[in-house]
Amino acid sequence: MRSVQARRTSAFAATTTTWAPLVADGSFDVVLPAAGGDWVEAGVSIISPSGGGNSYLDVAVIVGGSVVSWVSTSSLTHTSVSGWFRSNGHGNIAISGATLYKVKAGDIEGGSIRLRLYSFMDSGSAAYIASTSDPAVFYGVSRVSSAVLPPVQPSGFVGWGVPALIEPPLSIPTGSILWMRGRDLTGAAGSTISAWPDASPAARTISYVSASTPVTVAAASTPKGGKSAAFPGNPGSGSYFTVGATALPTNRDGEVWLVVKSNDVGGSSNGWCKFGGDAGQENHYGYGGSVYDDDGCSSRLSHSAAGLTAWHIRRVQTTGTTRYVWINGGLVWSGAVTPHWRQAPNIGAANSYRFNGNIAEVIMFDRALSAADATKTNDYLLAEHM
Questions:
Q1: Which of 84, 199, 250, 355 sits most deeply, having the most CB atoms within 10 A of its CB?
Q2: Residue 253 bridge partners (DSSP)
Q3: Residues 6 or more apart from 206 whose CB is under 8 A from it?
Q4: Alpha-carbon separation of residue 163 from 97, 159, 225 (angstroms)
């Protein structure tokens, strides 16, 4: 059994003469399913150092937000300046070897091990930097089968040179027309989200509609420790997002995927998004345990669904005159509809009713995905968030 996760960032420029995380909010952490006695591998496949002095990297095991072990020493002590060493110089691209680490029972939280990348400089002029053109990549692999381990299990660092052995990070099929990713949210936990970029090739304008109660950053909020947008609810006074007109004609095939959880499944005041064409109807995500929505069709429909207060993957597809709704891969609704996709979708609002919950990802396609592309999308969302 093997699980792979990779993280990218272009958001840090770190200079410190004490061991400190390169990205402190958890968005660069690698979280892998593991148990005591398993082996995990971690590495940095690309990072850009700058400045003079000597600089080092090490990986920490995090439990409850605190370091419980350094991977280089399998303890809480650095016996010397440990970790991946980069000699004096600047302007280089550093590619590390990988390290192999045996998981201890105390390293596990919620059935997973969390790895966080730390840096140390012996001179204040040294730094590690990341940019859009040269993003840093930190990856981890859980390896629980002895068949894939070296014959002699070492402690500390092992120079496997592993980037060539690691599968590329999962992604979605080509042709998305909207892609809102939690990993792209900026700002500290609890701060207002004034911008959420569209990562699809369309790069659409996503506008923040400000009301008295803001949409805020929820850091380390998904099962994999990623960011999400926390929507406040509050009919008529909760903020939300609206998307610039998509290239999706109202009466054609298409689908939308969301990673979402609701905070209110009892009352009618919890709104939803507006992806469809029933302009006069309010949508609700969890009213009496049911979802009322017009996603991909011309009139509001409803379906019952359990577990809406837990993180789940919601997929709605319209193909021809049939609409399907899946939650975590299980079909919860299908039937004949008049297809209709809203040209400027609302994320977190359906007329006066506003969504009370969290959204970590929104993906739209201007076609009904094939089975292979649907599996690819689902696998990506599972690896990224679940």
A1: 355
A2: none
A3: 180, 195, 196, 197, 198, 241, 242, 243, 244, 347
A4: 8, 11, 24
Tokens 């960011």 map to which residue? 227
Residue-wise pLDDT tens digits, 321-351? 999 999 988 899 999 999 999 888 999 988 8
By percentage, how much of the chain surpasses pLDDT 90?
27
pLDDT at residue 166, as a whole number: 34
Q: How far apart are CA 84 and CA 16, in angstroms?
A: 16
Q: Which helix (H) or strand (E) holds 378?
A: helix 371-385
Q: Over 60: is that where the pLDDT of 230 sits?
A: yes
Q: Looking at the whole model, is its pTM more than 0.85? A: no
HSE, side-chain direction, 13 A CA sphere, residue 348? 35
Amino acid letter at 273? C
Q: How far apart are CA 190 and CA 193, in angstroms?
A: 9
Domains of the chain: 2-165 (2.60.120), 176-385 (2.60.120.200)
The DSSP result for 84-102, as a single string, is EEE-S--S--B---EEEEE
Strands, E, within 106-250: which ranges? 112-121, 127-129, 136-143, 157-158, 176-181, 206-209, 216-218, 228-232, 240-243
State the pLDDT at residue 150.
38
Confirm if 261 and 286 have CB atoms less than 8 A apart. no
Residue 44 in contact with residue 99, Cβ under 8 Å? no
